[in-house]
């Protein structure tokens, strides 16, 4: 059993990028699916597929690389709130990652969203991770 499934999710992506893998397969959960959708919408991953028909349920993520330089779209992906130390912020105190160039994934009462969307809706929540 994994103590922190979100940290495992982020570590699998980080390790796949360091190994220059094109696709990474991760055990699925609703929170991981939400984070994957946000990464896709913001252009950090090329594509994704939820495989709910087989057990255990998995998420296949196609990682995005620059076509010429072969550099990954994700430079850094970091867990912020963890089981031992949860980090909650209100809408005014939500962090700006790389002065607005990166995103912070926030779990709010209105669902999973980026820091910019949470600021616009004036909601705070738990900061899940930083992506740049």
Helical coverage, percent range:
25-40%
Shape: globular
Helix and strand run: HEHEEEEEEHE
Distance between the termini: 29 Å
From the alpha-carbon coordinates, what is the Rg to the nearest angstrom? 15 Å
Percentage of residues in DSSP E strands: 25-35%
Low-confidence stretches: none
Please give the number of β-strands.
8
Q: Which whole number gives the mean pLDDT?
A: 96
- Major beta sheet, specifics? 5 strands, antiparallel
Number of helices: 3
Q: Given the helix and strand composition, which structural class is it? A: alpha+beta
Question: How would you characterize the overall build of this protein?
Answer:
- The protein starts with a helix and ends with a strand.
- By secondary structure, it is an alpha+beta fold.
- The strands form 2 sheets. Strands 4, 5, 6, 7 and 8 form a 5-stranded antiparallel β-sheet that branches.
- The model has no long low-confidence stretch (mean pLDDT 96).
- It is 25% helix and 30% strand.
Q: How is the topology of this model organized?
A:
Blueprint: H1 5-18, E1 23-27, H2 30-41, E2 45-51, E3 58-63, E4 77-79, E5 88-89, E6 103-108, E7 111-114, H3 115-121, E8 125-131
Antiparallel strand pairs: 1-3, 2-3, 4-8, 5-8, 6-7, 6-8
């Amino acid at each position: 059993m994994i103590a922190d499934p979100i940290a495992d999710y982020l570590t699998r992506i980080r390790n796949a990028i360091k190994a220059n893998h094109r696709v990474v397969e991760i055990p699925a959960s609703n929170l991981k699916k939400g984070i994957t959708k946000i990464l896709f919408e913001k252009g950090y991953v090329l594509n994704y597929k939820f495989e709910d028909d087989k057990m255990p349920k998995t998420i296949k993520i196609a990682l995005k690389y620059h076509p010429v330089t072969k550099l990954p779209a994700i430079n850094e992906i970091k867990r912020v709130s963890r089981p031992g130390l949860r980090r909650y912020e209100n809408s005014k105190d939500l962090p700006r990652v790389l002065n607005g160039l990166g995103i912070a994934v926030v779990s709010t009462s209105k669902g999973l969203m980026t820091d910019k969307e949470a600021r616009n809706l004036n909601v705070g929540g738990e900061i899940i991770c930083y992506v740049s």
